[in-house]
Amino acid sequence: MTIRNVGGGDSLSIFERSWQTYHLLVAHDLMQHHALGQALEQRLIAWLPEREAAGLSSTLAMADLACGDLTTLAPLLRRLPLRELEAVDAAVGVLPQAEARLGPVPYPCHWRAKDLLLWAESGADHPSGPWDLITCLFGLHHLADADKWRFLELVPRQLAPGGRLLIGDLFRQPAEPRQQFLERYWARVNSWTVLTQPSRRLVIDHMASSDYPAEGEQFAAMAESLGWQVRWLWHGPDQAEGLLELGRLGEQLSEV
Ligand SMILES: C[S@@+](CC[C@H](N)C(=O)[O-])C[C@H]1O[C@@H](n2cnc3c(N)ncnc32)[C@H](O)[C@@H]1O
What we know:
The protein is 40% helix and 23% strand. By secondary structure, the chain is α/β, with parallel strands linked by helices. The protein has one domain: Rossmann fold (3-Layer(aba) Sandwich). Strands 1, 2, 3, 4, 5, 6, 7 and 8 form an eight-stranded mixed beta sheet that branches. Helix 4 links the parallel strand 1 and strand 2. The longest helix has 21 residues. It is globular, with a radius of gyration of 17 Å. It starts with 12 loop residues before the first helix and ends in an 8-residue tail after the last strand.
C-alpha cells in the first residue's frame, strides 16, 4: 500500500506490533486523550442542535481518519447519532481490531485500509460520503508539512455542506524546532514509568523516525489561507496536544 508518511511504512510498525503500549498510554492518560475526547464530545453535543437549527440532518455521516483500533473514539461512536461511519487507517491489520472494539452499532460501517492523504485525494472512488464530520486524531503528524497542507486543500472534497473537520494532534509551539519539541516530549516519555524501559525506548524511537508535528499557529494560518475557518477547541497542559475545529469559510463556526 502507498503510504505518504515521512517515515514511510516503518512509521506504522509501532501500531502494527504494539497496541499494548498505546493502550497503556491511553489508559494512564499520558497523552491527554481523556481531556481531548471530552472537548471533542462537548463540541459535538453543542454542534448537533446548531445543525438542526440550520436545517441540516440531525444524523451524521462520519469518517475517522487514522482510526487505529478506535481506542479513543469507540465509546463516543456508540453514543453519537450516526447514520454511517467510514474508518480509515493505513495499517491494514488494525481495522478488524477497530471493528471488534466498536462492537455492534445500528449504522453501516466501512473499514478502509488507506493512507489518509490518498483518501482525501480519491473522493471519486469512494462509494460513500460526503461526510458531515471528519475526525483525525493523532494521525496527521506523520505527514510532512507540505502533505499536511495538501490534505487541508483536498479534504473539502469529502466534506458535506455545513460539515466539520476536527483534528486532534501534537503541535509545536511558535518557532519551536522539531528537535526541541521532541526533546521536551521525550522528557515526558521518560517519566512514564508505567511503561517498561523498552516500551519507552520504542515510543522515543518511533517519534524520532516518524513524528513531524506542525507548528500549531502555522497550521491554523495555513488552513485559513486555504479557505477554512479555524478555531482551537482545546490545548493540553503540556503545550503539545491540541484540538482544532475547521469549517468551510462562509459556514459560521458558532461561539463556544
Ligand atoms: C497514535 S494512533 C491514533 C489512533 C486513534 N486515532 C486514536 O487517537 O486513538 C495513529 C494511527 O494512525 C495510523 N496512521 C499513521 N499514518 C497514517 C496515514 N498516512 N494514513 C492513515 N493512517 C495512518 C496508524 O496506523 C495508527 O493506527
